[in-house]
Amino acid sequence: MRRLGLSLALLLPSALWAGGAGAQPVSGGPDSADPVQRGEYVFQASGCLGCHTKDDKPESRLAGGRALKTPFGTFHTPNITPDREHGIGGWSDADFIRAFREGKRPDGQSLFPAFPYVAYTKMTDRDLLDLKAYLFAQAPSPAPNRPHELSAPFGWRFLLPAWQFLYLEEGTVPDDPAKPPDWNRGRYLVDAMGHCGECHTPRGQLGGLDSGRYLAGNPEGVEGDKVPAIHGGPEHGLGDWSEGDITLLLELGMTPDGDFVGGSMGEVVRNSTSKLTKEDRAAIAAYLKSVPAPK
Length: 295
Hints:
There is one protein chain. By secondary structure, the chain is mainly alpha-helical. The protein is built from 12 helices and 3 strands; from the N terminus they run αααββαααβαααααα. The chain has one domain. The N terminus is likely disordered.
């Protein structure tokens, strides 16, 4: 149980350093009428801070440069501040939505799927535009982006359209009318904003998610971590956890056996899941408990 608790990452294991101590509530929430305040909530739920912040220096916030080691090589995350030269300050609303929806840069080149647009494509336009409003309200940084260090053929950008044809299903997913609202909200948080499957679903040889083993764990996660299953199955998943157990971990980082998560999951709890509303944490728990173990 300790191993599961220390490994469990309901979001991309984002965030070495990234962000200060304590879980201070964000100024807005999912129902805020202010785009920047609401965008802050989307920013927290989407796990943006840690991946795009390399250390705890104030000038590093969202300036990129964090190295993500994967079986395909090392990705260096980009600057997402509103700096016009090195960040995204020159992106239009359409550019921003296209990156998340289609995995394309403003110049039309495909983005590497270390940026989890396979999940983010499911986000609504409103959430994406509010996220952009929040990012553009942050301080710009002139930090230049570092090139990725990827082995062939995974570093060949011209092959990415073929990869996207195989693995990217563009567009939002409508609510299931047969399911209650909290289930649909939980699925959206898990599959779109939280992009949990990006870490907790195993990948094939080309790096695409194995949809037949959804949330079944990944023996070769980012930074070499073995990532556990988080479906509701009783043998290898969260079947022995109650919904309260899951929400307590998301809020406080405490596992059912009384231990507390550390490392990257501790950062995720502090910087992201603890800042969700209690209703959203409960929705995540309800949805995960409903996911059957894959055959």
